Amino acid sequence: MNFIYETQLSRVQTIEKWASPIQIKYDGNPTKEDIAVLKQIIKEFNTIDGFPGMRIVSKNENVLLIYAPEEDLPEIRQEYDLSTFDKGICRRVSENGEIKSAVIVIESDIEQAYKNSVVLHEFFHLIGFYGHSYDETSVMNREGEPLPKLSSVDTLAFEMLYHPEIKIGMAYEEMNAYYQDKETAEVLK
Ligand SMILES: [Zn+2]
Hints:
Bound molecules: zinc ion
Structural class: alpha/beta
CATH architecture: 3-Layer(aba) Sandwich
CATH superfamily: Collagenase (Catalytic Domain)
Number of domains: 1
CATH class: Alpha Beta
Shape: globular
Strand content: 15-25%
Helix content: 25-40%
């Protein structure tokens, strides 16, 4: 719950998440490995119970994922009204707690393994974890050190956030109360 508080609820008053499938269109200059990594993230995220799912589309997208070289970033930042960022950024738009769309920008000309980890971090922002965590093993760690895979706490927090009993607009206290006397195994069933 502490992880959820740090990464979600310290930024918003009540639960925010996606309710309809995430349709991702990519643009810019992704490498072959970027696309493979993207497909791997989608596959992994789609195993989470209650998650509405994500897929790659060529039109009718609600998420635009842009891979762009450093020299193009100032222009993109202006076009999509993004704040200054380092390597990657995710800007979401939500209505009454439901995340409706987003733009993710990834600096494309950085080392591939590092970029893969940045993408995973931005995708965790995308699904509703807005903030960062003091947990050093988390992909959302605030040291800014991107990690290549979700920790067990990351996966648990993802499952807890998208649990069907956890509704959009629910207050922290209600979510806390729901999980208070549940064992991890019970949450993961
Ligand atoms: Zn971040």
